[in-house]
Amino acid sequence: MNFWLKRAATGFFKVFFNQFFQISKGVVLEGNEWL
């Protein structure tokens, strides 16, 4: 149970941080276009 919980948490955070990174990159690129 603990093993699967750890795997699920790792996968979730990996996806979450990947999405967050993509959004941050998009915001930075859009900000540069506005300047």
UniProtKB/TrEMBL annotation:
Superkingdom classification of source: Bacteria
Listed name of the protein: Uncharacterized protein
